[in-house]
TrEMBL record:
Gene3D superfamilies: Glycogen Phosphorylase B. InterPro entries: Glyco_trans_1, Glyco_trans_4-like_N. Residues 204-360 form the Glycosyl transferase family domain. One of its GO terms (molecular function) is glycosyltransferase activity. Residues 20-194 form the Glycosyltransferase subfamily 4-like N-terminal domain. This is D-inositol 3-phosphate glycosyltransferase. The keyword Glycosyltransferase applies.
Length: 384
């Protein structure tokens, strides 16, 4: 903290802040960085994660969760009798009482300080908190996905309705900022996600391992990744695909790999705690998702000097991967194109080294200290 920088009260609030995911990692990284700068920071999850990831062993911030249990899926009643049943009515009363208790707990936290900021990790967090008393704080709404993703579902409606009531709306790219402004969302500012690390030692890129990082959910389309790897591996001995993450599709994906003849070459590594070490053991990082905003895996890999191959999914992806200079972008859903791009980097160690070095320079501005400086500027703008 410099002498001219005031100590601030900052609350980060999200629905689930502890699962292994890009937005969760960003919240913990920001909370840690601001705490280390001397701000009073609390990261608050509304619901606990069913699979919590141990972010920041030594925390410079307070961390709490409002509900004791993850949300339980509710089945929709099929008949009037089911809708009016005593058991269902009792469950509705119990859920409402638990919600009210959680909201009272959060309100007590927010009113314990005289001033400060509340940073919402998602539109759903804003919706949940909006009924409470917190008008002595200044609200900042983040959106960690692209505008294209927002308009596919309810997020855009929530942002249009709720974010104009906040001081700032933070999005990940210039293109997304323009799109949200066109939707009459005011006070939009571009705020990149910070890197959790920017190591001095770069990955050697000689391991013949391709890496994919993320939960094993349908949106990640790891079936396409495995298909592309199987096609690219033909005639290229020694290469493996390592997938880091857990999720419901692991058994299906293992069958896919076996059916394509690469069951022994696709390695499911589960959740990794030390992601910096993970990237250092890879030679290529790849993304085959259905959609992405600004995936942290691309930025983190580049920080470690690992070249990236990705479907060209959004402005955020294009800002992280400079096609033909730091990595390769492929038409979305083009599995043969993904296989070709992987094969080119698998064959050319000099290209991997060149792309990796350029990628590290390309994401240098995302180092945590640089992004925290931008947050300080945003706070100052709000205070004026």
């Amino acid at each position: 903290m410099t002498e001219a920088t005031p100590v601030r009260n900052v609350f980060f609030v999200g629905i689930d802040v502890d699962s292994m995911g890009g937005s969760q990692r960003v919240l913990h990284t920001l909370a840690q960085g601001m705490g280390e700068r001397g701000h009073r920071v609390e990261l608050i999850g509304i619901r606990p994660s069913p699979e919590p990831f141990p972010y920041n062993e030594k925390r410079a911030y307070t961390h709490s969760t409002l509900y004791a249990e993850p949300a339980r899926p509710r089945t929709q009643p099929r008949t009037v009798g089911q809708r009016l049943s005593l058991a269902r009515r009792a469950e509705t009363r119990r859920a409402r009482a638990e919600r009210d208790r959680a909201r009272r707990e959060l309100e007590q936290k927010l009113t314990a300080v005289r001033d400060g900021y509340i940073v919402f990790g998602s539109p759903w967090a804003v919706d949940w908190v909006m009924p409470l008393k917190w008008d002595h704080l200044k609200g900042i709404g983040q959106y960690h996905e692209s505008f294209a993703q927002a308009k596919r579902g309810p997020n855009l409606g929530l942002i249009r309705r709720l974010y104009p009531r906040l001081e700032k709306t933070l999005v990940l790219s210039d293109g997304d900022a323009e799109e949200f402004r066109n939707q009459r969302v005011p006070n939009v500012k571009v705020m990149p996600n910070p890197l959790p690390f920017y190591p001095d030692a770069l990955a050697p890129l000689d391991t013949r391992k391709i890496g994919a990082v993320g939960r094993l959910d349908p949106i990640k389309r790891y079936d396409r990744m495995i298909e592309a790897f199987a096609a690219a591996r033909g005639g290229r001995d020694g290469w493996e695909l390592h997938i880091f993450g857990e999720g419901p599709l692991e058994s299906d994906l293992k069958r896919t790999a076996a059916d394509l003849g690469v069951g022994d070459q696709v390695v499911f590594r589960g959740t990794a705690r030390d992601m910096e070490s993970v990237y250092r053991e890879l030679s290529i990082v790849a993304i085959s998702s259905e959609r992405e905003g600004r995936p942290m895996a691309l930025a983190e890999a580049a920080a470690c000097g690992v070249p990236c191959v990705s479907f060209d999914l959004s402005g955020g992806v294009r800002e992280l991967v400079a096609h033909g200079r730091t990595g390769t972008l492929v038409t979305p859903a083009d599995v043969p194109g993904l296989a070709e791009a992987l094969g080119e980097l698998m064959d050319d160690g000099e290209m991997r080294t060149r792309y990796g070095a350029a990628g590290r320079v390309h994401v240098r501005q995302l180092a945590l200290s640089n992004v925290l400086d931008q947050w300080e500027q945003a706070f100052a703008e709000i205070d004026r």
